[in-house]
Amino acid sequence: MSSWNLWHGCTKISPGCLNCYVYRRDAEFGRDSSVVAKTGNFNLPVRRKRDGSYALQPDGDFVYTCFTSDFFHPDADEWRPEAWRMMKERQDLNFFFVTKRPDRFSVGLPEDWGSGYGNVHICCTCENQKMADERLPVFLELPICHKNIIHEPMLEGISIEAYLSYYGNAIESVTCGGESGEGARICDYDWILWTREQCMRYNVTFNFKQTGANFRKNGRIYTIPRQLQMKQAAKAGINFRKA
After folding, report:
1. pLDDT average, residue stretch 11-33
2. Rounded CA gap, 161 and 58, in Å?
């Protein structure tokens, strides 16, 4: 697994941002998370070794991109065209990033984008019903080859059936996950199961990523250590693969 955090810092824009892990980590080092700045790894995909080969080689997994910011943050507008250029150059790598700002997708978009670069996977995150209904109608109409949806942190039961019904063939997967860290809000297992049921009904791949720190099941709240949250989700055995 490779990561490429080409710029760092973000601005909180919705309820899912309340306990942002970027803000938590930056607070430990006295950094201002709201300041968006390029990192020393900005050109990571196109760096070369002495023999001329790329330093970053495919490993069979995604290159998880911009996970300490939002790729479409307005403060990164001037850098985004170069980021797209590097992704185009590295067709041998599959880039994956998550956004809360699908409405800004067209800012700085390459002229040759067309229906999308085949090696770019974009995931829209929707933590509650309000955000799903604001973001998904925009996101699902965008020219993107690989579209995914994630409810993380999942803050309530969310109906996406209308989107799965209409755009099901264009949605590659839906993922759910609870919130981690101090002050984590509750994630209810029934919300997870309801999303799974909707995905199964429309034959869309479903993943239960993590329980979060405070997980409610059958009316009981469980406090789950960070290192066990993904393991406990996997133990549930409820992931669904599109037929």
Report:
1. 96
2. 35
The whole-model pTM stands at 0.96
pLDDT digits (tens, 9 = 90+) for 99-114: 999 999 999 999 999 9
Instruction: Give me 231's structure tokens.
Output: 């393991």
Distance CA 125, CA 131 (A): 8
How far, CA to CA in Å, does 125 sit from each of 75, 82, 98, 102? 20, 24, 7, 10
**What are the residues whose beta carbons fall under 8 Å from the beta carbon of 67, sequence distance 6 or more?**
3, 5, 97, 98
Q: What is the pLDDT of residue 243?
A: 85
How does DSSP classify residue 30?
T
HEC string for 97-127: EEECCHHHCCCCCCCCCCCCCCCEEEEEECC
